Sequence to fold (192 residues):
Amino acid sequence: MGFWDSLLGRSKPVQPDLDQLFGLPSAAVTLQAAIGFTPTGTGSVCFSSTEGGAFSQIRREVRDLLDADSERAGAPVEFSRDGYGYSWLVSRRSPEELPALVGDLHAVNTTLQDGGFGAQLLCSLVSFRDAELRSLALVYLYKRGTFYPFAPLPGQTRDNPLELQASAVIKDDLRIEQDLSRWFPLWGAPGL
Fold:
């Protein structure tokens, strides 16, 4: 950062560190031991919808890459679009295969980034549930390089105490987003 940037209060954006995703299996163990949440086996990547031949080619490459996994038999990879116009790729694995699911999410993010679509990447999430069937997602913000928990409740409300509790529990496993205003709700996110 230069002198003028510093003087004018400008800062360089945080570079995404997709390897942060590999901290999720450790965070899952911590979540289960501390507050009883276990992985559901579902993860997803959210990105701004883009049209055109280049993006269609990348999308085919992502599907082919994930479908080529012989262990994925019967575990579909789905593309969908939410009510806000964002696209989602959803990967499903057995709940015990969290490291493989994280590998899927990393591969999707890397393929999109390397294909020139990094600016369209928004977030990735992995879903968890507890014995009471409460939902919790650990969300990776691509442009911030940080995580936050999202705990939706019926009626588009959030379980804020659970989110804060989960954040405190996993703070040693993942880089937590400190700006709570960036803990965006992901209403209707596939897999939650």
